[in-house]
Amino acid sequence: MNIQRKYSLPNCTLLLEGLSDVTRAAHFQEMRPELSILVNAECYLSGYNQPLTGGREFFESLVRAVSGYAQEFLSSVPNPQAHNQESELVEFQKVDSNRHRLIIHSEGAPEGFEHSNNSKRPPIEIDLNTVQLFDLVEAVDQFFADTQTLPELSLELQPVTRRYGGASQALIRQAVPAAVGVSSLAVAAIAFNLIPPPQMRPPQPKADEQTSSTTKSITPPASAAATPIVAATPIPTPTASAKPAVNDLEALLNTVPEITDPSQLRALNRQVYNQIHPALTNRSGLQQDLIYRLGVAADGAIVGYKAVNKEANLGVGQTPLPNLLYNPANRAPISNEPIAQFRVVFTTQGVLEVSPWRGYASTPEVVGAKITDSNIVKGLNQKLYSTVRQTWSGTPTFTRDLKYRVAVNKDGVIADYEPLNQVAFDYFQETPLPKMFNAIYGSNVAAPNNKEPLAHFQVIFKPNGKLEVTPWQGYQ
Fold this sequence. Notes:
Structural class: alpha+beta
Largest sheet: 5 strands, antiparallel
Strand order of the largest sheet: 9-11-10-12-13
Number of strands: 17
Order of helices and strands: EEEEHEEEEHHHHEHHEEHHEEHEEHHEE
Helix content: 25-40%
Radius of gyration: 27 Å
């Protein structure tokens, strides 16, 4: 199974892709899978369209060069680890007090980067300002705080003597706007010989302790015991007093509130469906249903998923879920936001099913202001019936009732519609509702953000061609 890890800052994002060593991951069944075999590393820097890419050697060299140069920059003491072009793929050169040249020695270079003409294999040269530099340092820091990614890779920092720290205060002031993180603070402290070199990785808890801590408030189905969890949440930078951050779905739910309000879950259920359904291009070839548990933020962002059955673990590549995880570069990081859980099933018939993981604690309600005047509702009922009846033609191919909630404004213009049963999802194109909605809003997927009072109705399309429109009585 391919695993991705992202460490994102405003000016830099590190993306690591790799595999898990099954023999080593056996004791971490309830944790997200350990990325122990690095296949590809990408470094995205603000202002550049193309990422820096490479394998394990490139990434290790980048980490060493970044750490060494940060130590040199803060201490004004030359650090050969930052400039070792004979044995390193990556090196740094200081241009001036706010410009730092990142040089990548490689056989090939992506388009969009400036090349040096001094060698047969021209290196990539990128100039970073101090803020970009320390965002890169912070991204490396997030990687070292992640105990489930390349755990055998450690950062070795050597202190320089105190007598070389004469210009330290001015240099520290230069770095303050860069939001220096744990690794960069460690580099600074070591550079000035203020504290001993820290152990960058927190100690690994025992396997049984990890299991109990991640299942304290959530008990997954028994079939999920041996399946991995994938989460896109960037790991917050730990402080000296903070516990090591965790980044799996179950542990995340132990540290943030869970969304349980039925009305909010109902609205999020639609958002999750509307994200997955258009991206589900491969609807055939499944031998068994693929079942997943999703974590979803309050704005509908999919922050993690876990395979519930073995087939789901093996077949995740046949689903759009890996591509739908939210991108930290385009959204604020998930920290203490409440998370909702959903059960998502890709059936062998090509049908997508989405429902709250724990169901609804009570009957959901439609959110928003409502038109309640009985005379107005009656008139809008008749107008909606006439509009839909006139635009519904053709011979139905469905064999069961299609049920929808349809909302209109005071002028009778459709403002929202929602399928109420699975067959309504499957055959919605045989109704005029998506065309009506698309003609007004340019999309038939999600409702616009309209806060005017609405009248809600239940609309039923019957297989015999009959149409029923009645005032909304609530979800059943």
